[in-house]
Write a structure and sequence with these properties.
Blueprint (H helix, E strand, L loop, with lengths): L1 E3 L12 E3 L2 E3 L5 H13 L5 E2 L7 H4 L4 H16 L24 H7 L12 H20 L4 E4 L21 H11 L5 E5 L6 H7 L5 E8 L24 E6 L5 H18 L3 E6 L18 H10 L5 E5 L5 H18 L3
Parallel strand pairs: 1-4, 1-5, 5-10, 6-7, 6-9, 7-8, 9-10
Antiparallel strand pairs: 2-3
Helix pairs in contact: 1-10, 3-4, 5-6, 8-9, 9-10
């Protein structure tokens, strides 16, 4: 299986994350991607290629121009305002307030974000743009005939909405790739998000549409991030009614239970009959992940990959969460290995 990877992810080296009222070292760090890449190489898993550059056109198919402009210039505007630290939002247009884009950089940070844990730093734009290009290159390779491709994206993307960043995400790589499939002639695309956290950005982007089926298996948002989206009664709107499925699980969910949701998701995908499948691949479902509460073990990820392969679809994996850095490479590559083993020759 091809892996697409860009060293430009290292341009994002945030030093601060707001957690528990303190500024800590971020859980989302460069070593995550480097550990996965090292595992791909160690396992001799396949060719590793650099991404092509696609410009902003495919990104603007998903994200608003105001938001993209904000991300591109945020760090320079922050520095120009003589701010001493990393750019962290501190004020939001809450209920009863006007939804307008302020001139001040603090106001714009709040307008274009939904959470305070994710700082913007020097190099964030370069890394986010490269991550989108990684996903787009993987999509192009599949359109050219590859059965499956691993987009080793960093930063991740599934929390990013059309005009919001948060949850370590800036551009929604999976959504950008799904739209690229449609723009290249696909009629229907399915997105199956197996990250521990709900893919709120992906859901919101496609919530009114029937050409993209969105499914997410995740921890109960009453208890974990992102809290305000991801419940089972959210099934789509307008043309999208019936094309969004959330499968929600409580603390300490083992693979035997989580797997039932995977089967339900795969059954729904089979009914939908998409032309391509996008997997936002989070392995923060792992039993030792520091910010999650499922109990999957490393060997379970082989089974996950095998089940996805049985769908028989062109499949694009975009890397999302997973914060046990020592285990992330093993767990992510186990999914890909299980997929490859189950694919017909």
């Amino acid at each position: 299986m091809l892996t697409v990877f860009s060293p430009l992810h290292n341009r994002r080296t945030a030093k601060t994350e707001l957690d528990g009222g303190m500024l800590i070292e971020p859980h989302e760090k460069p070593s995550r991607a480097e550990t996965i890449l090292a595992r791909v190489i160690h396992q001799d898993f396949g060719e590793i290629i650099a991404p092509e550059e696609f410009g902003l056109g495919p990104i603007l198919r998903i994200h608003t121009s105001d938001y993209v402009d904000f991300l591109e210039h945020c760090w320079d505007d922050w520095i120009a305002a003589d701010k001493p630290g990393e750019a962290i939002p501190a004020v939001w247009p809450g209920r009863g307030m006007r939804q307008r884009i302020p001139k001040d950089i603090d106001g714009r940070l709040g307008y274009f974000s939904f959470a305070a844990e994710t700082s913007i730093t020097e190099g964030t734009w370069d890394a986010a743009l490269a991550s989108a290009n990684v996903a787009l290159t993987a999509q192009k390779k599949i359109a050219q005939g590859e059965r499956a491709v691993f987009a080793l994206c960093r930063p991740p993307g599934h929390h990013a909405a059309a005009d919001l960043f948060g949850g370590y995400c800036f551009f929604n790589n999976a959504a950008i790739a799904a739209q690229a499939f449609l723009d290249r002639g696909a009629k229907r695309v399915a997105i199956l998000d197996v990250d521990f956290h709900h893919g709120n950005g992906t859901q919101s982007i496609f919530y009114d549409r029937a050409d993209v089926l969105t499914i997410s298996l995740h921890g109960d948002p009453d208890l974990v991030f992102p809290h305000f989206l991801g419940f089972e009664d959210e099934t789509g709107n307008a043309d999208g009614e019936g094309y969004n499925l959330n499968l929600v699980y409580p603390p300490n969910t083992p693979f035997s239970v989580w797997r039932q949701g995977l089967e339900a998701a795969c059954d729904r995908i089979g009914q939908y009959q998409p032309d391509a499948l996008v997997i936002p691949l989070g392995v923060d479902t792992f039993e030792d992940d520091p910010i999650s509460f499922f109990k999957l073990k490393s060997d379970d990820y082989f089974t996950l990959g095998e089940r996805l392969a049985k769908l028989g679809l062109p499949t694009l994996f975009t890397m999302e969460g997973g914060y046990d850095v020592e285990a992330i490479g093993v767990n992510a590559v186990n999914v890909l290995d299980g997929f490859e083993r189950a694919c017909p020759d």
